[in-house]
Specification:
The complex is a heterodimer. Chain A contains 9 helices and 9 strands. Chain A is an alpha/beta fold. In chain A, strands 5-6-7-3-8-9 form a 6-stranded mixed beta sheet, with helices on both faces. In chain A, helix 6 links the parallel strand 6 and strand 7. Chain A starts with 7 loop residues before the first strand and ends in a 6-residue tail after the last helix. By secondary structure, chain B is mainly α. Chain B is 78% helix and 0% strand. The N and C termini of chain B lie far apart (58 Å). In chain B, 39% of the residues are buried. The chains are: A alpha/beta, B mainly alpha. Chains A and B meet through helix 3 and helix 5 of A and helix 5 and helix 6 of B.
């Protein structure tokens, strides 16, 4: 079943910080299914866009239009986010997941079954009682993903979820994310890795200097980017 | 030199034999300081935490004022409390002057700004680390405040210990509002001042050793607690 709050339409989105237009009139239509990857150089505004879509920031102007007749708090309840460096609470793996479920209103048997499902989805069953303090970087990221998936979100935002992980941990995370999209969860992921976009994305949004330069299907973008800046990015070159 | 050694020897005997005067003075000091810190914590900790996460006009001025109050001279606090509790003051009818209660009031005024200022700092630092994650989960307002307090609980305990250290060691406020009356308001610090001025170093040294022991204990506990709160658990 496709998410009820998608497709998502973004209209003339502007975000300023100290008078600087970090997002400069973003227009975007994000489809309901699969994984949308947001690519671009540092400072393109990718993470800011993600935070605006998730409601962590308030736009300076413009509109973020979710589908369905939902209030903003109802939309937020259907979302989750995984940060590049997730911050875990000072408790066990299982307790971190339980915390998110409790705050989202899950109770009793429903909460217990969601914890079990999340632990299995992210291969954390064997270390469920381990304290977050002693986890490796990859394990912490898995806990963050488990915490996100446990609340049964329609949309999961990911801000460079594997940027600080080694290749082995990255593969594990990507397999988990692929499983989530197969289960009907929409992923909107910021990444700087063209390879990761190739492996995970169905469509790609390319941003540069606060604007969306291109939004096309993955293969079309990676084979023949339309803009010079996107071509330079795909080829791993610098762009002035 | 012999006199000094005699005094140390007397001090040791007083401690080992749990001299009744010594025990009474130490007991009163602990009671006054612990009650003051407990009340200061009940008021100051939630207040500091609330200031940490709230945003309102005048917040910066409030923070500056609280930080400045940490440096309140104890004897000035004693004077202010004295003026209020004296017969000529607005609360003279309570007959609290020269009682342990007056000393508790003075110490509450001394320790509460410390608790507010330091707890605000710890909670604010935690808020900077946890804010996005908690808001993403949907945790805001009071629930967020509770979560942050729980996350930095060990650091907040060090704040309480610091406040206790300040209270147990201060002399200016309690001597003004307490009067250092034997069997009534004589605390460790005021007793040391009195006994030293009398030349009776034995009791003064005994009390001093106990104070040093308390100071060390507080610091050891604070160090141990600090190790339990090394910072946020993240990939940063």
């Amino acid at each position: 079943m496709l998410p009820a709050t998608l497709p998502l339409h973004v209209r003339e989105l502007v975000f300023k910080i100290n008078g600087v237009r970090v997002l400069d009139g973003v227009n975007l239509d994000i489809p309901a299914a699969g994984c949308t990857a947001i690519l671009g150089y540092n400072g393109a505004g990718k993470s800011v866009l993600l935070r605006l879509l998730h409601g962590l920031l308030t736009p300076t102007s413009g509109a973020i239009e979710w589908s369905g007749d939902f209030k903003p708090e109802q939309v937020a309840q259907r979302q989750a986010m995984v940060f590049q460096s997730p911050v875990l609470l000072r408790r066990s793996v299982e307790a971190n997941i339980r915390y998110a479920l409790t705050k989202r209103g899950f109770k009793g048997h429903d909460r217990v079954s969601q914890i079990e499902q999340a632990l299995e989805q992210t291969n954390l069953v064997d270390i469920r009682q381990r304290h977050a303090r002693v986890l490796s970087g990859g394990e912490r990221q898995r806990v963050a993903i488990a915490r996100a998936l446990a609340v049964k979100p329609e949309v999961v935002f990911l801000d460079e979820p594997t940027a600080s992980l080694d290749p082995a941990a990255t593969i594990v995370i990507e397999n988990i994310l692929r499983g989530a999209t197969n289960g009907g969860c929409k992923l909107i992921a910021v990444t700087q890795s063209v390879g990761q976009a190739l492996r995970l994305a169905d469509d790609i949004v390319f941003m540069h200097r606060g604007k969306v330069i291109e939004h096309t299907q993955r293969d079309e973008f990676l084979k023949a980017p339309k803009s010079a800046v996107a071509r330079a990015f795909v080829e791993g070159k610098l762009y002035e | 030199m012999d006199e000094l050694l005699d005094s140390f020897s007397t001090a040791a005997v007083l401690i080992v034999q749990l001299d009744s005067a010594l025990v009474e003075i130490v007991g009163l000091s602990l009671r006054v300081s612990l009650v003051a810190v407990a009340i200061g914590t009940l008021v100051g900790l939630p207040l500091g935490a609330a200031i940490a996460v709230a945003r309102f006009h005048g917040r910066n001025l409030l923070i500056i004022s609280v930080n400045a109050l940490m440096g309140l001279p104890p004897v000035v606090v004693g004077l202010l409390v004295y003026l209020n509790l004296s017969n000529a003051g607005p609360f003279g009818w309570l007959n609290l002057l020269y009682t342990p209660t007056a000393m508790i009031i003075a110490q509450i005024i001394l320790v509460t700004p410390i608790i507010v200022a330091l707890s605000r700092q710890f909670v604010e630092d935690a808020n900077a680390d946890y804010d996005e994650e908690l808001r993403s989960i949907g945790v805001r307002g009071f629930a967020k405040l509770i979560t942050l307090i729980v996350e930095v609980r060990h650091s907040l305990l060090t704040v309480v210990l610091a406040a206790f250290g300040r209270a147990i060691a201060e002399v200016g406020a309690v001597i003004v509002v307490g009067g250092n009356i034997n069997h009534v308001t004589r605390m460790m610090t005021t007793a040391i001042a009195l006994e030293t001025s009398k030349g009776d170093l034995g009791l003064a040294l005994a009390l001093g050793l106990i104070l040093i022991l308390l100071a060390f204990s507080v610091n050891i506990m604070a160090s141990a607690l600090k190790r339990l709160d090394p910072g946020p658990i993240s990939g940063r």
